[in-house]
Design brief:
The complex is a heterodimer of chains A (394) and B (398). Chain A is an alpha+beta fold. In chain A, 45% of the residues lie in helices and 13% in strands. Chain A folds into 3 domains: 88 residues, Butyryl-Coa Dehydrogenase, subunit A, domain 1; 108 residues, Butyryl-CoA Dehydrogenase, subunit A, domain 2 (Beta Barrel), CATH 2.40.110.10; 135 residues, Up-down Bundle (Butyryl-CoA Dehydrogenase, subunit A, domain 3). Chain A is globular, with a radius of gyration of 22 Å. Chain B has 12 helices and 10 strands. Chain B has a 4-stranded mixed beta sheet with strand order 1-4-5-8, with helices on one face. A 4-stranded antiparallel beta sheet of chain B has the order 2-3-7-6, with no helix packed on it. A two-stranded antiparallel ribbon of chain B has the order 9-10. Chain B starts with 6 loop residues before the first helix and ends in a 6-residue tail after the last helix. Classes of the chains: A alpha+beta (394), B alpha+beta (398). At the A-B interface, helix 7, helix 8, helix 9 and helix 12 of A face helix 1, helix 7, strand 10, helix 8 and helix 10 of B. The structure holds flavin-adenine dinucleotide.
C-alpha cells in the first residue's frame, strides 16, 4: 500500500493547477464556485464558453483513450485533475454528461462512424448531452420504459415517441441519449434500444419542471415521432449498454465532487467557529462526524480506484453512492443547524437562496437520483451479499 | 498511489485465515474463555512458531519480520473475525509499539528478541481508576501511578487498571507520573518484568470473556535506570503515540469482528425461513444488512489508511507528513470502527431472533466483544470530540 503519488503525477498536478490559475480569470473569474449542485441553472452561456476554454487546453476527456482524442490519463491523473479542478473552484461542468456518460458509452459500444461523429463535439466543448432514461412510470423501475422506437421501413431510420421526465439540463443540450423500446410488446429489460437523438427538432418539446429550490435544472421531454440520429449497438442491446453507462457514473469524477464537499464543510466550520455553534457538544459531534465521513469517503474511493477486491469484486464501489449521498444530505441539514435562525433568512425575494440553503435543499435529491438509497441498499444486499432478489409484481 | 493490499499481504491474510480456522473454532474460543490464562498457551506457541506474526513489526535486527503496520492490521482483522483468544493484541498491538517507538538500541536488544521469539508476552499498563471518569477518560489525566527517582533508578507505586492480559503478561510497559504532577506533566514510561518484587496482579472477570483485564498494584517496585524508556517526566508525547497506535490495532480487530458479524447474519438469514421464505428475502432484513455492509467497507478504508499512517510512524525513514496524521487517522479509525462494530454486532444479534439471545450461538460473543472494544481507549463519541477539538478549537481556521 502506498499513500503518495509519484513524481510524474505530482508534475501533472502542477500542470493542471497552474493552467487553472492562468485561465480562470477575466470573463471566467465570476464563475468560481458556481454551477455546482443546486446552482446548475446559473450562467449557462458563460459556462459553455468555459467548457471550450477547458477543451482548448486539452482538459476535456483526459481519461479517454488517445485513439479517441483523449489523453489516456491514468486513474491517478484523473483523480488529480478532479481534485485540482474542484480545489481551484472551477465552475460546475455543464459538459459532464457528454464527457462522463455519452462519450464513454460511444467509445465502448459505438461504430467508428459514430465515434467520428459524436466524440469531437464533446471534446471541443461545443456539444452538450442529457440523459433520457426516467419516465413517469419508469423511475426506480427503469426497465419499465414505455417510450417506443419504430424503424421506418423505407429509410431504415428510427423514430421515437413517448415521454421522459427529470431530464437534467435538457434545455441546455444539443443531444440526448434515450432508452426506448424497440420491440413492441416486450417487457422489462428485454427489447430496449439505446438511441442518440438531436434535441433541436419540432418533434421534441422540452418543458422545465420547477424544483423545490424555485429553479429548473430538470425537465419533461416529449418525443412525438422524433427522429433518432443513431442507434448504438443492436436493437435489444439497450439495457446492457444503459447498465454499463451507470457504471461510468461512479467513476473518478466523484473525487472532484469530494473536493467540493470539502469546500462546503469548510464553510460550515467557519460559520460554527464564528457564531459559537462550535462550542455546542452536539454540533461538535456532527462536525467531527462529517469530517470523518468525508475523509473516509476519499479513502474508500482510492481503494475502489486502486482495484482493492478483498471483500469481493466491486464491494467498495457498491456502497459508494449510498455513502456519499447520505453523507451529503446530512451535511445539508448540519449547515442549517449550525446557522440556527439565520438559516431561515433568504438572500432576497422572491426566493433567492443562499449557498447553504441551496445545499440543504438540493442534497435531498442526492439520495433520489442515480438510484435512490433504498435501491442502493437492494443492490448492496443482492449483489454484494448474495441475498434474494426483490419480488416483482410482473 | 496504490491503496490496496500487495500480493504478499494477501498471502499474510490467507495464512492467518487458514491458521485461525484451525486454531480458533467456537469450541476453542469457549474453552479459552474459561481457562486459567484466558488463552491456550499451546495454541499461542503454535502461532509463534508457525506464523511468526508476533514478530511482524519488529525489525529484522531484533529477530523480527520487519514488516509494517498494514501487515499487523491484516492479522488483527483476521483475529477479530475469529475472536482469537491470545496475548497478541496486548503484546504486538500495544506493548511492542512502545519499545519500537521509545526504546534505545540497547533496550531494544534487551527486550524485543524475546517477544519476537514468542518466549515473552507483554502489555501496556498505563491508566489508574481515573480512566472510568465521566464514562471514559483516556487522556493523560488517567495516568495515576507514580515514579520517583532513587539512587539505582526509579521506584514505582500505585494502581493500574483495565490492563489487557495484565494477569499473564511477562513484561509490563508501565506509565507513571511524578507525585503531585497532573495532566501531561511528569509522565514516565518503564519496562517492568511482571515478576519484579512489589508487583501484584489480580484478574478481573469481564463482560467480554474472550479478553482478560487485570488490576495491578505496584508497591515500591524498584527498577534500574536502564528500564526507563526515553526521558522520565517527558513521556506524554510518546505515550500519546503509543495509544494512537493501540487505537489503530483495536480498530483493525473491530473491522474483523464487524465483518464476521455481518457474514454470520447473512448466512443465518439465508437459511432461516419464516412465512414460507428465507428471512433474507425481506427488505427490512436486506436493508439492515446493506447498512452493515456499508459500514464494514468504510471501516476497512479507515483501518487501512490509519495503518499506512502508522507504518510511516514506525519506519525509521517514514514520510513525516503522513506520519503527522497519526492522531487524526487513529481517532477516525477507532471512532468509525467502534460505532460500526457495535452496530453490526447488535444488528446481527437482532437478525438471529431468539437464538441470538442464547449462550449457544456465537453471535453473543461478538456482541460482547463489540461493546468492550468500543469502550476501550474511548468510544466513537470520544474520538469525535478529539477530532472536533482539532477542527474547531485551534487558533487558525483549519
Ligand atoms: C435532481 C434530479 C435530477 C435527475 N436527473 C435525471 C436525468 O438527467 N435523467 C434521468 O433519466 N433521470 C433523472 N432523474 C430521475 C431519477 O433517476 C429518479 O427520480 C429516480 O430513479 C427515482 O425514480 P422516481 O422518481 O420515479 O421514484 P420512485 O421509483 O417512484 O420511488 C419513490 C420511493 O419509493 C422507493 N422505492 C421504489 N422502488 C423500491 C423498491 N424496489 N424497494 C424499496 N423502495 C423502493 C424509492 O426509494 C423512493 O423512496 C433525476 C432526479 C432528480 C431528483
Amino acid at each position: 500500500m502506498k499513500l503518495t503519488f509519484n513524481a510524474a503525477d505530482e508534475r501533472f498536478r502542477e500542470d493542471i493547477a497552474s493552467w487553472l490559475q492562468a485561465h480562470l480569470v477575466g470573463e471566467f473569474e465570476h464563475l468560481k464556485f458556481r454551477g455546482g449542485p443546486g446552482d446548475e441553472h446559473m450562467f449557462p452561456e458563460e459556462r459553455k464558453r468555459w467548457e471550450q476554454e477547458l477543451a482548448a487546453g486539452g482538459w476535456v476527456g483526459i481519461g479517454w483513450p488517445e485513439a479517441c482524442g483523449g489523453r489516456g490519463a491514468s486513474i491517478e491523473q484523473q483523480v488529480i485533475f478532479a481534485e485540482e479542478y474542484a480545489r481551484a473552484g472551477a465552475p460546475g461542468r455543464i459538459g459532464h454528461i457528454g464527457e462522463g456518460l455519452a462519450g464513454p458509452t460511444i467509445i465502448a459500444f459505438g461504430t467508428p462512424e459514430q465515434k467520428a461523429k459524436y466524440l469531437p463535439g464533446i471534446l471541443n466543448g461545443t456539444e452538450f448531452w442529457c440523459q433520457g432514461y426516467s419516465e413517469p412510470s419508469a423511475g426506480s423501475d427503469l426497465a419499465n420504459v414505455r417510450t417506443r422506437a419504430v424503424r421506418d421501413p423505407d429509410s431504415g431510420r428510427w423514430r421515437i415517441t413517448g415521454q421522459k421526465i427529470w431530464t437534467s439540463l435538457a434545455h441546455e443540450s444539443q443531444w440526448c441519449f434515450v432508452l426506448a423500446r424497440t420491440e413492441p410488446g416486450s417487457v422489462a429489460h428485454r427489447g430496449l434500444g439505446f438511441f442518440l437523438v438531436r434535441m433541436a427538432q419540432p418533434e421534441i418539446t422540452v418543458r422545465p419542471i420547477e424544483q423545490l429550490t424555485g429553479t429548473s435544472e430538470f425537465n419533461e421531454v416529449f418525443f412525438d415521432d422524433a427522429l433518432a440520429e443513431d442507434l448504438v449497438g443492436e436493437p435489444g442491446d439497450g439495457w446492457r449498454i444503459a447498465m454499463t453507462l451507470l457504471g461510468f457514473e461512479r467513476g473518478v469524477s466523484t473525487l472532484g465532487q469530494q473536493m467540493q464537499f470539502q469546500n462546503e464543510l469548510d464553510e460550515i466550520i467557519r460559520i460554527a467557529r464564528s457564531n459559537g455553534a462550535a462550542s455546542d457538544p452536539a454540533i461538535r459531534q456532527r462536525i467531527a462526524e462529517a469530517h470523518t465521513g468525508l475523509r473516509l469517503m476519499r479513502y474508500n474511493a482510492l481503494r475502489m480506484l486502486s482495484g482493492d477486491e478483498r471483500s469481493g469484486p466491486d464491494s467498495s464501489a457498491l456502497v459508494y453512492k449510498l455513502h456519499w449521498a447520505s453523507w451529503h444530505r446530512n451535511l445539508g441539514a448540519l449547515a442549517m443547524d449550525v446557522l440556527g435562525p439565520e438559516a431561515e433568512l433568504l438572500d432576497g425575494a422572491p426566493y433567492e437562496l443562499t449557498r447553504l440553503q441551496s445545499l440543504f435543499l438540493f442534497t435531498r435529491s442526492d439520495t433520489i437520483y442515480g438510484g435512490t438509497n433504498q435501491i442502493q441498499r437492494n443492490i448492496i444486499a443482492e449483489r454484494g451479499l448474495g441475498m434474494p432478489k426483490e419480488a416483482k409484481g410482473r | 498511489m496504490e491503496f490496496r493490499l500487495t500480493d504478499e499481504q494477501y498471502m499474510v491474510r490467507d495464512t492467518a485465515q487458514a491458521f485461525l480456522a484451525d486454531a480458533s473454532s467456537s469450541g476453542q474460543v469457549r474453552r479459552a474463555m474459561t481457562a486459567a490464562r484466558s488463552y491456550d498457551p499451546a495454541v499461542w506457541q503454535r502461532l509463534c512458531t508457525e506464523l511468526y506474526v508476533q514478530a511482524v513489526t519488529i525489525p529484522e535486527a531484533y529477530g523480527g519480520l520487519g514488516l509494517g503496520y498494514v501487515d499487523l492490521a491484516i492479522v488483527l482483522e483476521q483475529m477479530g473475525r475469529k475472536l482469537f483468544c491470545s496475548p497478541f493484541m496486548a503484546t504486538v498491538g500495544m506493548a511492542t509499539n512502545a519499545l519500537l517507538l521509545v526504546a534505545s538500541d540497547e533496550q531494544k536488544q534487551r527486550w524485543l528478541p524475546a517477544i519476537a521469539e514468542g518466549t515473552q508476552t507483554a502489555t501496556l499498563a498505563w491508566t489508574g481508576p481515573q480512566a472510568a471518569r465521566a464514562g471514559g477518560s483516556w487522556g493523560a489525566e488517567a495516568v495515576s501511578a507514580t515514579w520517583t527517582a532513587t539512587a539505582e533508578g526509579y521506584q514505582l507505586d500505585g494502581d493500574l487498571r483495565y490492563v489487557i492480559d495484565g494477569d499473564t503478561a511477562d513484561l509490563l510497559i508501565v506509565a507513571a507520573r511524578t507525585p503531585g504532577s497532573s495532566g501531561s506533566e511528569g509522565i514516565g514510561l518503564f519496562v517492568v518484568p511482571a515478576s519484579s518484587a512489589g508487583v501484584e496482579r489480580q484478574w478481573t472477570p469481564t463482560l467480554d470473556q474472550s479478553r482478560r483485564l487485570a488490576n495491578l498494584t505496584l508497591r515500591g517496585v524498584s527498577v534500574a535506570a536502564d528500564q526507563c524508556l526515553g526521558v522520565a517526566g517527558e513521556g506524554w508525547p510518546q505515550l500519546q503515540k503509543i495509544l494512537a497506535l493501540a487505537k489503530v490495532s483495536l480498530a483493525a480487530e473491530q473491522l474483523g469482528v464487524a465483518s464476521e458479524a455481518l457474514d454470520m447474519a447473512v448466512n443465518y438469514t439465508l437459511e432461516r425461513e419464516q412465512f414460507g421464505r428465507a428471512i433474507a428475502s425481506y427488505q427490512a432484513v436486506k436493508h439492515k444488512a446493506a447498512d452493515m455492509k456499508l459500514k464494514a467497507e468504510v471501516a476497512c478504508s479507515a483501518v487501512y489508511y490509519a495503518a499506512c499512517v502508522a507504518s510511516e510512524v514506525l519506519a525509521p525513514d517514514g514520510d513525516v507528513n503522513i506520519a503527522a496524521e497519526l492522531d487524526e487517522a487513529a481517532a477516525m479509525a477507532k471512532g468509525y470502527c467502534s460505532d460500526t462494530v457495535f452496530f453490526n454486532a447488535g444488528s446481527a444479534l437482532q437478525l438471529f431472533g431468539g437464538v441470538g439471545f442464547t449462550a449457544e450461538y456465537d453471535i453473543q460473543l461478538y456482541f460482547k466483544r463489540a461493546k468492550a472494544s468500543e469502550l476501550y481507549l474511548g468510544n466513537g463519541a470520544a474520538q469525535r470530540e478529539q477530532i472536533a477539538a482539532m477542527l474547531l478549537d485551534g487558533e487558525s481556521a483549519q
